[in-house]
Amino acid sequence: MKEGPDIAQVAALIGDPARANMLTALMSGKALTVSELAEEAGVTIQTASSHLSKLDSGGLLRPRKQGRHKYFALAGEDVAQVLEGLMGLAAGSGHLRTRTGPKDAKLRQARVCYNHLAGDMGIQMFDSLIARTHLSFEGEDLRLTDSGAAFAYDLGIDVGALQSARTPLCRECLDWSERRSHLAGSLGRAFLSRFEELSWAKTDRKTRIVTFSRSGAEAFHQLFPVN
Amino acid sequence: MKEGPDIAQVAALIGDPARANMLTALMSGKALTVSELAEEAGVTIQTASSHLSKLDSGGLLRPRKQGRHKYFALAGEDVAQVLEGLMGLAAGSGHLRTRTGPKDAKLRQARVCYNHLAGDMGIQMFDSLIARTHLSFEGEDLRLTDSGAAFAYDLGIDVGALQSARTPLCRECLDWSERRSHLAGSLGRAFLSRFEELSWAKTDRKTRIVTFSRSGAEAFHQLFPVN
DNA sequence: AGCATACTTCGATCGCCCTCGAACCAATCT
DNA sequence: AGATTGGTTCGAGGGCGATCGAAGTATGCT
Q1: What is the dihedral sign for C-alpha A222, A225, A226, B5?
Q2: Where are the domains of chain A?
Q3: B207–A3: do the CB atoms touch at under 8 Å?
Q4: Which positions of chain D lie under 7 Å from any protein Cβ?
Q5: Is the ipTM of this complex over 0.85?
Q6: Domain B7-75 maps to which CATH number in 3.30.870.10, 1.10.10.10, 1.10.3720.10, 3.40.50.720?
Q7: Is residue B4 predicted with pLDDT exceeding 90?
Q8: pLDDT digits (tens, 9 = 90+) for B163-190
Q9: In this complex, which of B7, B60, B176 lies closest to A93 when CB atoms are compared?
Protein backbone atom coordinates (compact mmCIF):
# COMPACT_ATOMS: atom_id res chain seq x y z
CA MET A 1 0.00 0.00 0.00
CA LYS A 2 2.69 2.47 0.88
CA GLU A 3 5.43 2.50 -1.67
CA GLY A 4 8.01 5.17 -1.45
CA PRO A 5 8.59 7.38 1.51
CA ASP A 6 5.83 8.72 3.63
CA ILE A 7 4.68 11.89 2.01
CA ALA A 8 1.82 12.59 4.35
CA GLN A 9 3.88 13.39 7.43
CA VAL A 10 6.04 15.97 5.72
CA ALA A 11 3.14 17.49 3.85
CA ALA A 12 1.05 17.69 6.99
CA LEU A 13 3.94 19.44 8.65
CA ILE A 14 3.90 22.09 5.95
CA GLY A 15 0.12 22.05 5.82
CA ASP A 16 -0.55 23.95 9.00
CA PRO A 17 -1.03 27.67 8.36
CA ALA A 18 1.18 28.76 11.23
CA ARG A 19 4.01 26.46 10.21
CA ALA A 20 3.61 27.39 6.57
CA ASN A 21 3.98 31.04 7.45
CA MET A 22 7.13 30.27 9.40
CA LEU A 23 8.57 28.31 6.52
CA THR A 24 7.84 31.01 3.98
CA ALA A 25 9.40 33.51 6.31
CA LEU A 26 12.50 31.33 6.41
CA MET A 27 12.58 31.32 2.63
CA SER A 28 14.35 34.64 3.08
CA GLY A 29 17.34 32.50 3.97
CA LYS A 30 17.86 34.32 7.20
CA ALA A 31 17.87 32.36 10.42
CA LEU A 32 15.14 33.61 12.74
CA THR A 33 14.50 33.25 16.44
CA VAL A 34 11.47 31.63 17.99
CA SER A 35 9.87 34.93 18.90
CA GLU A 36 10.41 36.38 15.47
CA LEU A 37 8.82 33.35 13.89
CA ALA A 38 5.95 33.51 16.35
CA GLU A 39 5.36 37.09 15.32
CA GLU A 40 5.59 36.12 11.67
CA ALA A 41 3.02 33.35 12.07
CA GLY A 42 0.71 35.33 14.30
CA VAL A 43 0.75 32.92 17.22
CA THR A 44 2.06 33.02 20.76
CA ILE A 45 5.57 31.94 21.58
CA GLN A 46 4.48 28.69 23.17
CA THR A 47 2.69 27.44 20.10
CA ALA A 48 5.53 28.61 17.92
CA SER A 49 7.93 26.62 20.03
CA SER A 50 5.78 23.56 19.67
CA HIS A 51 5.53 23.98 15.92
CA LEU A 52 9.23 24.52 15.54
CA SER A 53 10.14 21.44 17.45
CA LYS A 54 7.85 19.46 15.17
CA LEU A 55 9.36 20.96 12.06
CA ASP A 56 12.77 20.25 13.47
CA SER A 57 12.12 16.62 14.26
CA GLY A 58 10.61 16.37 10.81
CA GLY A 59 13.99 17.33 9.44
CA LEU A 60 12.85 20.50 7.75
CA LEU A 61 14.78 22.91 9.92
CA ARG A 62 18.29 23.31 11.19
CA PRO A 63 18.36 24.88 14.65
CA ARG A 64 21.33 26.67 16.12
CA LYS A 65 21.62 27.83 19.68
CA GLN A 66 23.36 31.09 20.28
CA GLY A 67 23.35 32.34 23.80
CA ARG A 68 19.82 32.45 25.01
CA HIS A 69 18.52 32.71 21.47
CA LYS A 70 17.64 29.80 19.31
CA TYR A 71 17.85 30.41 15.63
CA PHE A 72 16.06 28.34 13.06
CA ALA A 73 16.85 28.09 9.37
CA LEU A 74 15.67 25.83 6.61
CA ALA A 75 17.49 22.52 6.65
CA GLY A 76 18.77 22.92 3.14
CA GLU A 77 18.23 23.87 -0.45
CA ASP A 78 16.14 20.78 -1.07
CA VAL A 79 13.58 21.97 1.45
CA ALA A 80 13.53 25.40 -0.13
CA GLN A 81 13.06 23.82 -3.51
CA VAL A 82 10.04 21.82 -2.39
CA LEU A 83 8.54 24.92 -0.86
CA GLU A 84 8.98 26.77 -4.13
CA GLY A 85 7.33 23.89 -5.91
CA LEU A 86 4.36 24.07 -3.58
CA MET A 87 4.13 27.80 -4.16
CA GLY A 88 4.02 27.07 -7.85
CA LEU A 89 1.12 24.69 -7.42
CA ALA A 90 -0.71 27.07 -5.16
CA ALA A 91 -0.19 29.97 -7.54
CA GLY A 92 -1.07 28.13 -10.70
CA SER A 93 -3.93 25.84 -9.99
CA GLY A 94 -5.27 26.75 -6.59
CA HIS A 95 -7.49 29.63 -5.79
CA LEU A 96 -5.62 31.88 -8.12
CA ARG A 97 -4.92 34.30 -5.36
CA THR A 98 -3.11 36.56 -7.77
CA ARG A 99 -2.37 39.10 -5.16
CA THR A 100 -1.62 41.68 -7.79
CA GLY A 101 -0.77 44.37 -5.34
CA PRO A 102 2.36 46.42 -5.80
CA LYS A 103 4.15 44.21 -3.31
CA ASP A 104 3.49 41.20 -5.48
CA ALA A 105 4.81 42.85 -8.61
CA LYS A 106 8.03 43.67 -6.84
CA LEU A 107 8.25 40.11 -5.58
CA ARG A 108 7.97 38.83 -9.09
CA GLN A 109 10.62 41.16 -10.32
CA ALA A 110 13.32 40.41 -7.78
CA ARG A 111 13.17 38.57 -4.52
CA VAL A 112 15.41 36.47 -2.37
CA CYS A 113 14.81 32.74 -2.55
CA TYR A 114 16.39 31.14 0.49
CA ASN A 115 19.69 32.88 -0.10
CA HIS A 116 19.91 33.71 -3.77
CA LEU A 117 18.25 35.96 -6.30
CA ALA A 118 14.93 34.87 -7.80
CA GLY A 119 12.22 36.44 -9.89
CA ASP A 120 12.59 38.10 -13.27
CA MET A 121 16.07 39.35 -12.60
CA GLY A 122 17.24 36.04 -11.20
CA ILE A 123 16.14 34.34 -14.38
CA GLN A 124 17.75 37.00 -16.52
CA MET A 125 21.03 36.45 -14.70
CA PHE A 126 20.80 32.71 -15.12
CA ASP A 127 19.94 32.87 -18.82
CA SER A 128 22.70 35.35 -19.46
CA LEU A 129 25.29 33.20 -17.72
CA ILE A 130 24.21 30.17 -19.71
CA ALA A 131 24.09 32.03 -23.01
CA ARG A 132 27.63 33.27 -22.59
CA THR A 133 28.71 29.80 -21.45
CA HIS A 134 29.84 31.01 -18.09
CA LEU A 135 27.71 28.19 -16.83
CA SER A 136 27.15 24.93 -18.60
CA PHE A 137 25.24 21.78 -17.96
CA GLU A 138 27.28 18.68 -17.38
CA GLY A 139 24.92 15.81 -17.36
CA GLU A 140 22.25 17.19 -15.11
CA ASP A 141 24.66 19.12 -12.94
CA LEU A 142 25.51 22.72 -13.42
CA ARG A 143 29.17 23.58 -13.83
CA LEU A 144 31.02 26.88 -13.65
CA THR A 145 33.23 27.15 -16.73
CA ASP A 146 36.65 28.76 -16.74
CA SER A 147 35.28 31.89 -18.31
CA GLY A 148 32.59 31.89 -15.67
CA ALA A 149 35.14 31.64 -12.90
CA ALA A 150 37.02 34.55 -14.39
CA PHE A 151 33.77 36.45 -14.70
CA ALA A 152 32.95 35.87 -11.04
CA TYR A 153 36.48 36.77 -10.01
CA ASP A 154 36.21 40.08 -11.86
CA LEU A 155 33.10 40.81 -9.89
CA GLY A 156 35.03 40.17 -6.69
CA ILE A 157 33.85 36.70 -5.79
CA ASP A 158 36.31 34.25 -4.30
CA VAL A 159 35.32 31.14 -6.17
CA GLY A 160 38.01 29.03 -4.55
CA ALA A 161 36.60 29.59 -1.09
CA LEU A 162 33.14 28.65 -2.28
CA GLN A 163 34.32 25.46 -3.91
CA SER A 164 35.74 24.17 -0.69
CA ALA A 165 32.37 24.30 1.03
CA ARG A 166 30.26 21.18 1.03
CA THR A 167 27.21 22.82 -0.48
CA PRO A 168 27.17 22.55 -4.26
CA LEU A 169 28.62 25.51 -6.10
CA CYS A 170 25.94 25.82 -8.74
CA ARG A 171 22.43 24.52 -8.66
CA GLU A 172 19.31 25.43 -10.50
CA CYS A 173 16.16 26.27 -8.65
CA LEU A 174 12.86 27.02 -10.24
CA ASP A 175 10.63 29.96 -9.67
CA TRP A 176 7.02 29.94 -8.68
CA SER A 177 6.33 33.24 -10.42
CA GLU A 178 8.04 32.42 -13.68
CA ARG A 179 8.18 28.80 -14.61
CA ARG A 180 11.89 28.89 -15.24
CA SER A 181 15.10 28.26 -13.41
CA HIS A 182 17.46 30.59 -11.68
CA LEU A 183 20.84 30.11 -10.08
CA ALA A 184 21.07 28.66 -6.59
CA GLY A 185 23.97 27.09 -4.71
CA SER A 186 26.80 28.85 -3.00
CA LEU A 187 27.62 30.78 -6.16
CA GLY A 188 24.08 32.05 -6.39
CA ARG A 189 24.35 33.13 -2.80
CA ALA A 190 27.68 34.81 -3.48
CA PHE A 191 26.28 36.78 -6.40
CA LEU A 192 23.45 38.18 -4.35
CA SER A 193 25.61 39.11 -1.40
CA ARG A 194 28.07 40.74 -3.78
CA PHE A 195 25.27 42.85 -5.21
CA GLU A 196 24.50 43.97 -1.72
CA GLU A 197 28.14 44.69 -0.93
CA LEU A 198 28.39 46.82 -4.04
CA SER A 199 25.16 48.42 -2.86
CA TRP A 200 23.56 47.69 -6.16
CA ALA A 201 20.66 46.17 -4.32
CA LYS A 202 19.17 45.91 -0.90
CA THR A 203 17.03 43.05 0.28
CA ASP A 204 14.24 43.53 2.73
CA ARG A 205 14.39 40.36 4.76
CA LYS A 206 10.88 40.88 5.98
CA THR A 207 9.16 41.01 2.62
CA ARG A 208 11.89 39.14 0.71
CA ILE A 209 11.82 41.90 -1.87
CA VAL A 210 15.13 42.82 -3.47
CA THR A 211 15.21 46.44 -4.57
CA PHE A 212 17.89 47.56 -6.98
CA SER A 213 19.08 51.12 -7.01
CA ARG A 214 18.90 52.96 -10.28
CA SER A 215 22.62 52.64 -10.91
CA GLY A 216 22.62 49.11 -9.55
CA ALA A 217 19.99 47.99 -11.97
CA GLU A 218 21.89 49.62 -14.78
CA ALA A 219 25.08 47.82 -13.86
CA PHE A 220 23.15 44.58 -13.51
CA HIS A 221 21.62 44.80 -16.95
CA GLN A 222 24.96 45.65 -18.44
CA LEU A 223 26.61 42.70 -16.71
CA PHE A 224 23.87 40.26 -17.60
CA PRO A 225 22.56 41.28 -21.02
CA VAL A 226 19.39 39.65 -22.20
CA ASN A 227 20.86 38.33 -25.41
CA MET B 1 2.13 38.54 6.42
CA LYS B 2 1.45 36.26 3.52
CA GLU B 3 3.72 36.86 0.62
CA GLY B 4 3.70 34.42 -2.19
CA PRO B 5 1.04 31.85 -2.82
CA ASP B 6 -0.69 30.01 -0.05
CA ILE B 7 1.40 26.96 0.60
CA ALA B 8 -0.60 25.71 3.54
CA GLN B 9 -3.74 24.79 1.65
CA VAL B 10 -1.98 22.67 -0.93
CA ALA B 11 0.30 21.08 1.61
CA ALA B 12 -2.60 20.29 3.92
CA LEU B 13 -4.33 18.69 0.98
CA ILE B 14 -1.38 16.37 0.50
CA GLY B 15 -0.89 16.04 4.23
CA ASP B 16 -3.76 13.72 4.94
CA PRO B 17 -2.73 10.05 4.93
CA ALA B 18 -5.66 8.90 2.85
CA ARG B 19 -5.14 11.59 0.25
CA ALA B 20 -1.40 11.02 0.22
CA ASN B 21 -1.96 7.36 -0.51
CA MET B 22 -4.23 8.24 -3.38
CA LEU B 23 -1.73 10.65 -4.81
CA THR B 24 1.14 8.21 -4.60
CA ALA B 25 -1.09 5.64 -6.26
CA LEU B 26 -1.68 8.11 -9.05
CA MET B 27 2.05 8.55 -9.45
CA SER B 28 1.80 5.43 -11.57
CA GLY B 29 0.41 7.74 -14.21
CA LYS B 30 -2.66 5.64 -14.66
CA ALA B 31 -6.06 7.22 -14.17
CA LEU B 32 -7.97 5.45 -11.43
CA THR B 33 -11.62 5.34 -10.45
CA VAL B 34 -13.03 6.45 -7.14
CA SER B 35 -13.47 2.90 -5.87
CA GLU B 36 -9.96 1.90 -6.85
CA LEU B 37 -8.57 4.90 -5.05
CA ALA B 38 -10.73 4.17 -2.03
CA GLU B 39 -9.28 0.68 -1.93
CA GLU B 40 -5.81 2.07 -2.33
CA ALA B 41 -6.25 4.47 0.54
CA GLY B 42 -8.04 2.04 2.79
CA VAL B 43 -11.17 4.12 3.28
CA THR B 44 -14.77 3.78 2.24
CA ILE B 45 -16.02 5.11 -1.06
CA GLN B 46 -17.83 8.04 0.51
CA THR B 47 -14.76 9.40 2.19
CA ALA B 48 -12.74 8.79 -0.91
CA SER B 49 -15.22 10.79 -2.90
CA SER B 50 -14.98 13.62 -0.43
CA HIS B 51 -11.21 13.58 -0.53
CA LEU B 52 -11.11 13.47 -4.29
CA SER B 53 -13.40 16.41 -4.69
CA LYS B 54 -11.14 18.37 -2.37
CA LEU B 55 -8.04 17.39 -4.28
CA ASP B 56 -9.81 18.31 -7.48
CA SER B 57 -10.91 21.74 -6.36
CA GLY B 58 -7.38 22.20 -5.10
CA GLY B 59 -6.23 21.75 -8.65
CA LEU B 60 -4.12 18.69 -8.04
CA LEU B 61 -6.22 16.28 -10.06
CA ARG B 62 -7.74 16.13 -13.48
CA PRO B 63 -11.02 14.22 -13.45
CA ARG B 64 -12.58 12.61 -16.48
CA LYS B 65 -16.04 11.14 -16.59
CA GLN B 66 -16.49 8.06 -18.66
CA GLY B 67 -19.86 6.46 -18.48
CA ARG B 68 -20.70 5.81 -14.90
CA HIS B 69 -17.06 5.78 -13.92
CA LYS B 70 -15.10 8.81 -12.90
CA TYR B 71 -11.41 8.59 -13.50
CA PHE B 72 -8.90 10.71 -11.68
CA ALA B 73 -5.34 11.44 -12.75
CA LEU B 74 -2.73 13.85 -11.53
CA ALA B 75 -3.28 17.31 -12.94
CA GLY B 76 0.13 17.47 -14.54
CA GLU B 77 3.82 16.89 -14.40
CA ASP B 78 4.30 19.76 -12.01
CA VAL B 79 2.18 18.03 -9.42
CA ALA B 80 4.11 14.82 -9.90
CA GLN B 81 7.33 16.73 -9.50
CA VAL B 82 6.30 18.23 -6.20
CA LEU B 83 5.25 14.83 -4.95
CA GLU B 84 8.62 13.41 -5.89
CA GLY B 85 10.23 16.28 -4.05
CA LEU B 86 8.25 15.53 -0.94
CA MET B 87 9.23 11.89 -1.19
CA GLY B 88 12.81 13.03 -1.32
CA LEU B 89 12.41 15.04 1.87
CA ALA B 90 10.60 12.22 3.61
CA ALA B 91 13.22 9.70 2.56
CA GLY B 92 16.23 11.84 3.36
CA SER B 93 15.57 13.73 6.53
CA GLY B 94 12.43 12.27 7.99
CA HIS B 95 12.10 9.09 9.88
CA LEU B 96 14.51 7.31 7.62
CA ARG B 97 11.98 4.67 6.84
CA THR B 98 14.44 2.89 4.60
CA ARG B 99 12.05 0.19 3.72
CA THR B 100 14.84 -2.02 2.45
CA GLY B 101 12.58 -4.81 1.42
CA PRO B 102 13.01 -6.44 -1.96
CA LYS B 103 10.16 -4.36 -3.28
CA ASP B 104 12.06 -1.24 -2.40
CA ALA B 105 15.21 -2.36 -4.17
CA LYS B 106 13.24 -2.96 -7.33
CA LEU B 107 11.59 0.41 -6.98
CA ARG B 108 14.96 2.07 -6.78
CA GLN B 109 16.18 0.24 -9.82
CA ALA B 110 13.34 0.98 -12.20
CA ARG B 111 9.93 2.39 -11.57
CA VAL B 112 7.36 4.46 -13.35
CA CYS B 113 7.18 8.10 -12.28
CA TYR B 114 3.84 9.46 -13.42
CA ASN B 115 4.33 8.20 -16.96
CA HIS B 116 8.04 7.86 -17.57
CA LEU B 117 10.94 5.77 -16.40
CA ALA B 118 12.60 6.63 -13.09
CA GLY B 119 15.11 5.02 -10.76
CA ASP B 120 18.59 3.84 -11.58
CA MET B 121 17.77 2.93 -15.14
CA GLY B 122 15.90 6.15 -15.77
CA ILE B 123 18.95 8.08 -14.69
CA GLN B 124 21.23 5.93 -16.78
CA MET B 125 19.10 6.64 -19.81
CA PHE B 126 19.10 10.35 -19.14
CA ASP B 127 22.84 10.54 -18.58
CA SER B 128 23.53 8.51 -21.67
CA LEU B 129 21.34 10.72 -23.81
CA ILE B 130 23.05 13.82 -22.50
CA ALA B 131 26.56 12.37 -22.87
CA ARG B 132 25.96 11.51 -26.51
CA THR B 133 24.35 14.92 -27.04
CA HIS B 134 21.05 13.47 -28.06
CA LEU B 135 19.68 15.83 -25.50
CA SER B 136 21.10 19.20 -24.65
CA PHE B 137 20.28 22.00 -22.33
CA GLU B 138 19.19 25.22 -23.93
CA GLY B 139 19.05 27.76 -21.22
CA GLU B 140 17.22 25.83 -18.58
CA ASP B 141 15.08 23.92 -21.05
CA LEU B 142 15.90 20.54 -22.39
CA ARG B 143 16.06 20.19 -26.16
CA LEU B 144 16.11 17.14 -28.40
CA THR B 145 18.98 17.51 -30.85
CA ASP B 146 18.86 16.33 -34.46
CA SER B 147 20.89 13.27 -33.61
CA GLY B 148 18.52 12.62 -30.73
CA ALA B 149 15.52 12.86 -33.03
CA ALA B 150 17.16 10.38 -35.37
CA PHE B 151 17.95 8.15 -32.42
CA ALA B 152 14.36 8.19 -31.27
CA TYR B 153 13.12 7.61 -34.80
CA ASP B 154 15.33 4.55 -35.10
CA LEU B 155 13.74 3.18 -31.96
CA GLY B 156 10.35 3.65 -33.58
CA ILE B 157 9.16 6.83 -31.89
CA ASP B 158 7.19 9.34 -33.90
CA VAL B 159 8.77 12.53 -32.66
CA GLY B 160 6.68 14.72 -34.92
CA ALA B 161 3.45 13.58 -33.34
CA LEU B 162 4.83 14.23 -29.89
CA GLN B 163 5.96 17.73 -30.75
CA SER B 164 2.49 18.77 -31.75
CA ALA B 165 1.12 18.02 -28.31
CA ARG B 166 0.95 20.85 -25.85
CA THR B 167 2.92 19.05 -23.14
CA PRO B 168 6.64 19.78 -23.36
CA LEU B 169 8.66 17.27 -25.31
CA CYS B 170 11.55 16.96 -22.88
CA ARG B 171 11.62 17.82 -19.26
CA GLU B 172 13.84 16.79 -16.40
CA CYS B 173 12.37 15.36 -13.25
CA LEU B 174 14.34 14.42 -10.22
CA ASP B 175 14.31 11.19 -8.34
CA TRP B 176 13.65 10.67 -4.69
CA SER B 177 15.79 7.55 -4.56
CA GLU B 178 18.80 8.94 -6.38
CA ARG B 179 19.27 12.66 -6.14
CA ARG B 180 19.58 13.06 -9.87
CA SER B 181 17.41 13.86 -12.83
CA HIS B 182 15.73 11.62 -15.32
CA LEU B 183 13.81 12.32 -18.49
CA ALA B 184 10.16 13.32 -18.27
CA GLY B 185 7.88 14.98 -20.80
CA SER B 186 6.13 13.37 -23.71
CA LEU B 187 9.41 11.96 -24.99
CA GLY B 188 10.09 10.29 -21.67
CA ARG B 189 6.63 8.84 -21.80
CA ALA B 190 7.19 7.65 -25.38
CA PHE B 191 10.42 5.91 -24.46
CA LEU B 192 8.81 3.94 -21.68
CA SER B 193 5.80 2.91 -23.72
CA ARG B 194 8.14 1.91 -26.54
CA PHE B 195 10.04 -0.34 -24.15
CA GLU B 196 6.77 -1.97 -23.29
CA GLU B 197 5.75 -2.33 -26.93
CA LEU B 198 9.04 -4.03 -27.66
CA SER B 199 8.34 -6.14 -24.59
CA TRP B 200 11.66 -5.18 -23.12
CA ALA B 201 9.91 -4.27 -19.92
CA LYS B 202 6.62 -4.59 -18.17
CA THR B 203 5.32 -2.14 -15.60
CA ASP B 204 3.21 -3.27 -12.73
CA ARG B 205 0.83 -0.34 -12.30
CA LYS B 206 -0.01 -1.44 -8.80
CA THR B 207 3.49 -1.38 -7.37
CA ARG B 208 4.93 1.03 -9.97
CA ILE B 209 7.80 -1.40 -10.48
CA VAL B 210 9.19 -1.72 -13.98
CA THR B 211 10.69 -5.13 -14.60
CA PHE B 212 12.96 -5.61 -17.58
CA SER B 213 13.27 -8.99 -19.22
CA ARG B 214 16.76 -10.43 -19.52
CA SER B 215 17.01 -9.60 -23.21
CA GLY B 216 15.24 -6.29 -22.67
CA ALA B 217 17.76 -5.19 -20.07
CA GLU B 218 20.57 -6.23 -22.37
CA ALA B 219 19.16 -4.19 -25.24
CA PHE B 220 18.62 -1.26 -22.88
CA HIS B 221 22.19 -1.25 -21.66
CA GLN B 222 23.48 -1.50 -25.18
CA LEU B 223 21.28 1.38 -26.30
CA PHE B 224 22.13 3.59 -23.33
CA PRO B 225 25.73 2.84 -22.41
CA VAL B 226 27.01 4.22 -19.16
CA ASN B 227 29.88 6.10 -20.68
C1' DA C 1 -39.50 -0.65 -16.63
C1' DG C 2 -36.71 -2.61 -13.11
C1' DC C 3 -32.47 -3.66 -11.13
C1' DA C 4 -27.59 -3.09 -10.31
C1' DT C 5 -23.53 -0.36 -10.15
C1' DA C 6 -20.76 3.93 -9.51
C1' DC C 7 -20.68 7.88 -7.25
C1' DT C 8 -22.32 12.02 -4.45
C1' DT C 9 -24.49 14.42 -0.62
C1' DC C 10 -26.08 14.80 4.09
C1' DG C 11 -25.75 14.31 8.96
C1' DA C 12 -23.73 12.81 13.05
C1' DT C 13 -19.87 11.17 15.60
C1' DC C 14 -15.39 11.28 17.23
C1' DG C 15 -10.62 12.09 17.69
C1' DC C 16 -6.70 14.65 16.73
C1' DC C 17 -4.05 18.72 17.23
C1' DC C 18 -3.86 23.60 17.31
C1' DT C 19 -3.94 27.13 20.75
C1' DC C 20 -2.98 29.58 24.81
C1' DG C 21 -2.40 30.28 30.14
C1' DA C 22 0.59 29.19 33.59
C1' DA C 23 4.39 27.31 35.57
C1' DC C 24 9.06 25.99 34.80
C1' DC C 25 14.28 26.11 33.05
C1' DA C 26 18.23 28.79 31.19
C1' DA C 27 21.12 32.56 30.17
C1' DT C 28 22.36 37.32 30.37
C1' DC C 29 22.46 41.97 32.79
C1' DT C 30 23.08 45.10 36.72
C1' DA D 1 21.84 37.53 44.10
C1' DG D 2 17.88 39.35 41.98
C1' DA D 3 15.76 40.72 37.85
C1' DT D 4 14.80 40.37 33.04
C1' DT D 5 14.42 38.13 28.79
C1' DG D 6 14.11 33.90 25.69
C1' DG D 7 12.43 29.44 25.41
C1' DT D 8 10.25 24.94 26.88
C1' DT D 9 6.84 21.95 29.10
C1' DC D 10 2.32 20.86 30.88
C1' DG D 11 -2.55 20.89 30.96
C1' DA D 12 -7.05 22.10 29.48
C1' DG D 13 -10.09 23.75 26.11
C1' DG D 14 -12.02 23.91 21.75
C1' DG D 15 -12.61 23.63 16.82
C1' DC D 16 -11.86 21.61 12.49
C1' DG D 17 -12.05 17.80 9.63
C1' DA D 18 -11.79 12.81 8.76
C1' DT D 19 -14.83 9.03 8.81
C1' DC D 20 -18.79 6.33 7.92
C1' DG D 21 -24.03 5.10 7.64
C1' DA D 22 -27.78 6.17 5.05
C1' DA D 23 -30.25 8.30 1.62
C1' DG D 24 -30.08 10.40 -2.98
C1' DT D 25 -28.62 10.81 -8.12
C1' DA D 26 -26.95 9.09 -12.43
C1' DT D 27 -25.61 5.67 -15.73
C1' DG D 28 -25.77 1.20 -17.71
C1' DC D 29 -27.62 -3.58 -18.26
C1' DT D 30 -31.40 -6.87 -19.35
Answers
A1: negative
A2: 7-75, 78-223
A3: yes
A4: 5-10, 17-23, 26-28
A5: no
A6: 1.10.10.10
A7: no
A8: 765 567 887 776 666 556 788 888 888 9
A9: B60
